[in-house]
Amino acid sequence: MPVKKRALKRRATGSSTGLTIKNNKKQKLSLSRPEPPYIKTPGVLLTFGQGDVGQLGLGTNILERSRPALVPSVDNVIDLCAGGMHTVCLSDSGEVITFGCNDEGALGRDTSKEGSETEPGKVALEGRVVQITAGDSHTAALLSDGKVYAWGSFRDSSGTMGLSSKGIEKKPIEMLPGNVVVKIASGAHHLVMLSENGQLYTCGCGEQGQLGRVTERSANRDRRHGMANFLSPMLVTFNPRHRPEFEDVWAGTYCTFAKEKSKGDIYVFGLNNYNQLGLEEQKSHFYPVISRAFSGKKWVQICGGLHHTLALDSDGVIYALGRKEYGRLGLGEDCDDAKELISIPALKDKKCVDISCGDSVSFAVTDRGELYAWGMGSTGQLGTGEEEDVHTPQLIKGKQLESHFVLCVSGGGQHTVLLAKSVDHEN
């Protein structure tokens, strides 16, 4: 598969699953987000959008689907992530399943047999996995004992960075030995880990400030003294007199959001050229700052595309922030860029339980199992059956979706994946 396609197909979203670690020590942290309902109800996988490198899991002959299609060989799934050009699933037995592009090791398994990358296959990990995340060219897994493993590669404006000092890692490697992690999040080319004592560790590309610990001056590869400062997970530090503890973390394409434990403040860092962090200065922010745009609400999920952000509060209301082009905000064709969080009128009567962003697309799942999509439609990633842009949330329908109750969604580079259950098991 031509590597050159990668420049046009990029996006990452992280899993929204929280974790409470149980061990012999006194529990230091318990994430505030309620356990998602799909954790207890294994479901099936549906995919749509571009599938030219097998990321749809529908075989070598299916290069695209404009409506949701059932992946026949994958079931008992409890979580999923769409990466740039690959798909990652978590089974109810704690196993990781991957398929799609493996040029830079994002699948974490041997695909030397012709066509094997397009077929769902298991990743060898010693332990039960409880959360997965996917970036443009990397994948990560959090085990029940708090260990984090990752594989693939990070990239920056100069090309491949590798995942470790050895370069691309085609098999899982442990990322933060000696630490217990309770949640992970992936941006396009960075990984964030939340430890049991509420601290953040980051690694990957830092050019847009998404690591929260690398100065603007040293973030460019030409000025680096070595890659270890970027590829080795390191602590995001604060003034000793003000060392916040965090209880949740999320990542956008080129940014990071972290929820402080005591007051619920949202700290942000990364790309803000369209105010997608809720900060006034339209520039990259290289160190964590509180975004007052998020004050006054209890946030249960935040996700980010290339230039926009979606946020879901505890009442099931979705807010949009950032760039308007292609309809990605869902605020109508005549809206302006959103410099502050604006609730989406078309969903005001809906209670939403899950959200996701692609680069220029947005998705929402309601408590009634409905999927809504809006944004750029040119790749079929919205699932509308058309290639037109959608400026307000549109209910997604399809023959193979009719008998299913949607549980969660993940938008990737140019494809989308859904977790759903049969309506016969809705109750």
TrEMBL record:
Highest taxon above the source species: Eukaryota
UniProtKB keywords: Guanine-nucleotide releasing factor, Repeat
Name of the featured protein: RCC1-like domain-containing protein
Annotated source species: Coptotermes formosanus (Formosan subterranean termite)
Composition bias type Polar residues, residue spans: 13-22
RCC1-like domain ranges (all copies): 45-418
PROSITE patterns, per database record: RCC1_1, RCC1_2, RCC1_3
Listed SUPFAM superfamilies: RCC1/BLIP-II (SSF50985)
RCC repeat start-end pairs: 43-93, 94-145, 146-197, 198-262, 264-315, 316-368, 369-422
GO-annotated cellular components: cytoplasm
InterPro entries recorded: Ran_GTPase-activating, RCC1-like_dom, RCC1/BLIP-II, Reg_chr_condens
Biased composition (Basic residues): 1-12
Molecular function terms from GO: guanyl-nucleotide exchange factor activity
Stretches the record annotates as Disordered: 1-36
Name of a matching Pfam family: WD40_RLD
